Amino acid sequence: MPTLEIRDLHVAVGDKEILRGVDLTVRSGETHAIMGPNGSGKSTLAYALAGHPKYTITSGTVLLDGEDLLEMKVDERARAGLFLAMQYPVEVPGVSVSNFLRSAITAVRGEAPKLREFAKDLKAGMDALSIDPAFAQRNTNEGFSGGEKKRHEILQLELLKPKIAILDETDSGLDVDALRVVSEGINRFRGLDASGADTGSGVDTGVLLITHYTRILRYVKPDFVHVFAAGRIVEEGGPELAEKLENEGYEAYTKASA
Ligand code: ADP
Ligand code: MG
Ligand code: MG
Fold first, then answer.
1. What InterPro entries does the annotation carry (predicted)?
2. What average pLDDT does the segment 85-108 reach?
């Protein structure tokens, strides 16, 4: 069973310590929400796990299926089954969405998908996310609206089928309709129907859903909620914790950790 195990992770940018001892275990099939105020280190956790060179691991361990993730190069992490949807996705000029996705699948699987199978999966994924067919020929992320960027992320999820997916602020900048489409995409990927019931068809992926706002959690029900403040997890609970945050905000946590 795929498991991501983060133990006492400390991360610095330059000489500034940002993560100050994060402990978190994500098992396949589980959805964890990481919530917290701006600047609490949520994206830093995502970047550190993805192997971004700016983020220095100063101590701690991260295991993916028992293997040392921190020893792996960025492409090895993707091959090992880790997927990161960025808060600010980069433009890839001159590379169409279709080619970008086919290259990504090739990188993860170690071999190119058959063209016919890829075209079929791509069409099914785009249909499910209400994406216009012409989208596949556009340059990756170039001039994408907020909604298009996020749909593209979920399309990547559906095609790559990672073991662990980290979604950083996938809900930011979405209007209500786009939020619903994106949330339904995540739920379909988790093997849940619109009512949250198990359809038995999902991939057993562990999802780490990083968000500042509670609204996406109305559609994507987390199994666990973790509150981040000043670089560590300061409270943990079930979905009811998200409701408490919705009502009370982060003030109690930012005061306590200041
Ligand atoms: P969140 O995603 O919770 O809003 P971040 O992880 O983006 O928080 O940021 C946490 C802290 O680390 C902030 O004080 C931020 O300024 C700092 N930080 C994050 N990334 C960098 C970076 N690349 N360079 C300098 N400071 C950074
Ligand atoms: Mg520590
Ligand atoms: Mg962030």
1. AAA+_ATPase (IPR003593), ABC_transporter-like_ATP-bd (IPR003439), FeS-cluster_ATPase_SufC (IPR010230), P-loop_NTPase (IPR027417)
2. 82
Which residues form the pocket of ligand 1, taking CB atoms under 6 Å from any ligand atom?
13, 18, 36, 38-44, 54
- In this structure, are residues 105 and 118 in contact, taking their beta carbons and an 8 Å threshold? yes
| 3-state per-residue secondary structure call for the chain | CCEEEEEEEEEEECCEEEEEEEEEEEECCCEEEEECCCCCCHHHHHHHHHCCCCEEEEEEEEEECCEEHHHCCHHHHHHCCEEEECCCCCCEEEEEHHHHHHHHHHHHHCCCCCHHHHHHHHHHHHHHCCCCHHHHHCEECCCCCHHHHHHHHHHHHHHHCCCEEEEECCCCCCCHHHHHHHHHHHHHHHCECCCCCECCCCCCCEEEEEECCCHHHHCCCCCEEEEEECCEEEEEECHHHHHHHHHHCCHHHHHHHC
The minimum-distance atom of ligand 1 relative to the CA of 45 is 6
**What pTM value is reported for the model?**
0.91
Is the confidence at residue 258, as pLDDT, over 70?
A: no
Q: Which atom of ligand 1 is nearest to the CA of 231?
A: 10
Domains of the chain in sequence order: 3-88+162-257 (3.40.50.300)
> Among the ranges 93-97, 100-104, 116-120, which has the highest mean pLDDT value?
116-120
ipTM, 2 dp: 0.95
Q: Which residue has the least CA distance to atom 22 on ligand 1?
A: 13
Share of the chain above pLDDT 90, in %: 59
